[in-house]
Design brief:
The complex is a heterodimer of chains A (198) and B (176). With 198 residues, chain A is of the alpha/beta class. Chain A is built from 9 helices and 6 strands; from the N terminus they run αβαβαβααβαβααβα. Chain A has a 6-stranded parallel β-sheet, sandwiched between helices. The radius of gyration of chain A is 15 Å and the shape is globular. The termini of chain A are far apart. With 176 residues, chain B is α/β, with parallel strands linked by helices. Chain B is globular and about 45 Å long. Chain B starts with 14 loop residues before the first helix and ends in a 6-residue tail after the last strand. Classes of the chains: A alpha/beta (198), B alpha/beta (176). At the A-B interface, helix 3, helix 5 and helix 9 of A face strand 2, helix 3 and helix 5 of B.
């Protein structure tokens, strides 16, 4: 388990994401916190369909040339759709940044542990074909991601170790069709429909 | 038809399959993914050859739905193909992502487990496929030799109105 509070980690992550970038976030606290604190058209929230956030991110990244696509995933979510890293590795979109907020637990449900504490997620990503990978345990490490994105080659995979959350009652995204429409308009804005696979 | 005449992936294509696939092609579908079923063998092979269509190989039906959703959000018009077994497997992803967000993906789904099939693993899903679809409020239609030219266009028209997935159901032997 990590030292860093999940909300603080999300705050730091939002610091290096640019206005033109895409953010797809997973179920539970991640989407709700972002919706409450940072909502704007660059966000697509996955409130159900646990595990699918990385696949949604992949689908977007394949056809989004000028933007980075940030997948804000969780350890439980990733493990639920683990073969996703195979597909991402095979298609290797250069603009895909897969961030896993790893608190080794199903925090938003009951705090039960996931299997992520017993394995090295970064090693799996490396083997699958992600080009730049890092496991991060500190604020300094999160702040260094900006430089990694600038100098490194995608697809990127960053595991950010966090504490299980304490607070629970963040707002839920409710008007999903409106969020979708807004997101589609955001993408259409100066977006070329071409494959970014390198 | 005899049991061993169904599901022959090495059998040849025919005019009925071509009619269906050609009418799909006219509607500018430009993305496809899924988990194949032998019954759809020729359909999938031909879809993959559409000009301007990007195909991604997925590991599961759930993953396929996620990727197709992402592609759809960027403006692609996806086809997602699978067997009804896979539809059941991904039913929550459909119910909790596609339906509430109103994401109209075209599903091409093989209907296994019909009374003429002797496969215990398909019996329950065969009997409950229609019930699952209607309980999720999704429109569907069975592909036939008669409607193969017009069904894709009808599916698109319905999806443009409902903004929900449409399911084209394919029975074994439909084309013969």
């Amino acid at each position: 388990m990590g030292q860093m509070n999940k909300e603080s980690v999300l705050d730091l992550v939002m610091e290096f994401i640019e206005d033109k970038d895409v953010i797809v976030s997973t179920t539970g606290l991640t989407s709700r916190y972002l919706y409450q604190q940072y909502d704007n058209p660059q966000h697509f929230y996955n409130p159900g369909a646990m595990g699918l956030v990385s696949s949604i991110g992949l689908g977007i990244s394949l056809f989004t040339e000028k933007r980075k696509v940030f997948i804000l995933d969780g350890d439980g979510s990733l493990l639920m759709n683990f073969a996703s890293i195979v597909t991402i590795g095979i298609n290797h979109p250069l603009n895909l940044v897969h961030i896993v907020l790893d608190n080794t637990s199903y925090d938003f449900c009951s705090g039960e542990l996931t299997n992520s504490s017993k394995i090295d997620l970064e090693k799996f990503a490396r083997l699958s074909g992600y080009k730049t990978t890092k496991t991060i345990n500190s604020i300094k490490g999160i702040k260094s991601i900006k430089k990694e994105l600038k100098n490194g080659l995608g697809p990127f995979f960053f595991v950010l170790k966090t504490d299980p959350i304490k607070k629970r009652n963040y707002k839920r995204p409710i008007d999903l069709p409106q969020i979708k429409k807004r997101f589609q308009e955001f993408l259409q804005d100066d977006n070329k429909k071409s494959l970014t696979v390198g | 038809m005899k049991e061993n005449e169904f599901n022959n992936p090495h059998g040849s294509s025919n005019a009925n399959i071509d009619a269906f696939v050609n009418s799909l092609q006219k509607l500018n579908f430009d993305f496809a993914t899924g988990i194949p079923c032998g019954v759809q063998n020729h359909i999938i092979k031909k879809i993959k050859k559409f000009q301007n269509l990007i195909h991604i190989t997925s590991n599961s039906e759930q993953e396929a739905i996620g990727i197709a959703t992402g592609a759809y959000l960027t403006g692609k018009i996806p086809i997602v193909y699978m067997q009804n077994s896979g539809f059941f497997a991904s039913s929550n992803d459909i119910a909790s992502l596609l339906v509430p967000y109103k994401i109209p993906l075209l599903f091409i789904v093989t209907w296994r487990g019909l009374p003429n099939e002797n496969a215990p693993q398909h019996k329950v899903t065969g009997n409950t496929t229609k019930k699952l679809l209607s309980s999720m409020g999704l429109d569907w239609e069975v592909l036939t030799k008669k409607n193969s030219k017009v069904l894709p266009k009808r599916a698109m028209e319905v999806m443009n109105k409902t903004m929900l997935p449409f399911i084209i159901l394919i029975k074994r032997g439909w084309d013969r």
